[in-house]
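May I ask you to review the protein record following this short note?
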Amino acid sequence: MKLQLVLGSLVAATLLSACGEGQPDAPAIAPTEVAAVQTPPPDYPAELACTGVGGKSVLKVVIGPEGSPTDVSLVTSSGNSQLDDSAAARVREWKFKAATRNGQPVPTTIQVPVSFNPPDPKPDECFAIEERVRRGG
C-alpha cells in the first residue's frame, strides 16, 4: 500500500510538471515605445521665412523595425506646399529607436507635427530678400 501511495505521488508530480504547474512563468519583457534619436529641423526657405510665411505640417510616419521611416505622408498641410515638402523630406532622414514588443523591434506609426515659425526679429538677410521681391526679382 505504501508503494502505491509513493508511485501515485510520483505520477501526479510528473503530470503536474508536464502541464507547467509549479513551473515559474518566463519573465515578461516590457514593451518600449518609439524614441527619436536624430531629428534635425527641415530647411525653411529664406524667402518664405523672411516674408512671414509659416505654418505647421502634420505628417504620418511609419517607423520600421530598424528605426528609419519607411513611409511618410501628409495628414495636415501647413498651407504651403514648399513647407510641407520640406518637412516630409527632412523627416524621411530622421532616425529613431524602434518600438519593441516581447523584446523584438516592431513597426510603429506616429504623427509628427513640424512647425515653421517666421523669425522675429528678422535676420539681416531678410531685408535683401524683401527688397529683391519688392523690385520683382
About this structure: The beta strands are 35-38, 55-63, 69-76, 95-97, 99-101, 104-106, 108-116. The first strand starts at residue 35 and ends at 38. Residues 1-18 have pLDDT under 50 and may be disordered.
